[in-house]
Structure formats: structure tokens, C-alpha cells
Amino acid sequence: MTSNFTKNISIYGLIIIFSLTIIFHLLVIVGVVPYEIVWGGRLTNHSQMLIFESVSITINLLMLWVVVSYAGFLRRKLNLKWLKVAFWVMFFLFSLNTIGNLNSSNQTEKMIFTPVTVLLAVFCLRLALSKRSGESF
Q1: What is the pLDDT of residue 3?
Q2: Which residue range is the domain that position 8 belongs to?
Q3: Helix segments in the chain, DSSP class H
Q4: What is the pTM of this model?
Q5: What does the alpha-carbon distance between residue 42 and residue 110 come to, in Å, rounded to a whole number?
């Protein structure tokens, strides 16, 4: 029960955070959120922001796809081993991103996004370590 509970928290937590992150990056692109508070405060112009934000949205969509595939929300099933590899890669990515956020020159990014990347890393680690593939959701 506890194992399935934490697995579901990880799945739904990742889905919610990735979805909100995509919305956030779209708000940066349209100018609602200033681009100075993302990417460690290192973006220098609008065209650079468009490139970085587009890449970020694409990566977040890919990671969201991995999670919904793992959860069984898609008709097409992916190989569980590949999904586990993806979760390990995501865990290391978010761990490194946490370090980057801690070193950010922007206090908003440091205070808001550091806890988010810690949560993402923990959720990905939980799914990467999952041993049973037949659990129901």
C-alpha cells in the first residue's frame, strides 16, 4: 500500500509540476513573466530567451510523455527498462539543476525553483527505483 501510494504521489506530482512548468515557460515567452528571472539570470536578449524557452518546453514535454507512458495513460506501451533509464537520467538532471539553482544570481529562482527541482529529483528517483511493473494506478 505505502509503495503504491508513494509511486502514485511521484507520478501525479511529476505530471502536475511538468504541466505547470510548461505553462510557466509559455508565460515567459509571451512576456507575462520577465525572462530575467529564469536561466540563472544569464539571458541577455529576447531572441536568446526564445531559443532557451523553446528548448525547455520541448524537454519538459518529453519528460511529461515519459511519466504518462510509465503511468499507463497512453495506449502505446514503452519498454519499462527504457522508462527506468529515462527516470535515472531525469534524476541526475534535476540533481544538477538543483545545484545550478542554488548558485543562481537571481534570488527568486533560488528560493522558488530549488525546492521544485529537489521534488522532481526525489519523484524521479522513486520511479527509477520502483521494482514492480504491475502495480495499478
Answers
A1: 73
A2: 2-128
A3: 2-30, 46-71, 80-102, 107-108, 114-128
A4: 0.86
A5: 14
Burial class (CB in 10 A: 0-12, 13-18, 19+), 38: buried
- The answer to the question of residue 51 being in a domain is yes
Number of domains observed in the structure of the chain = 1
Residues 33-62: what's their mean pLDDT?
A: 91
**Are 118 and 52 a contacting pair, CB within 8 Å?**
no
User: Residue 137 falls within a domain, yes or no?
Assistant: no
Tell me, yes or no, whether 36 lies in a domain.
yes
Q: Confirm whether 136 is domain-assigned.
A: no
Query: Left, alpha or beta for 67 (phi > 0: left; psi -120 to 50: alpha)?
Result: alpha
Give alpha helix (H) positions in 79-131. Answer: 80-102, 107-108, 114-128
**Helix 2-30 with 114-128: angle, nearest 10 deg:** 140
Flag whether pLDDT at 45 surpasses 80.
Answer: yes
How many whole angstroms separate alpha carbon 135 and alpha carbon 118? 25
Contact, 69 vs 77, CB < 8 A? yes
Question: How far apart, in whole angstroms, are the C-alpha atoms of residue 21 and residue 134?
Answer: 29
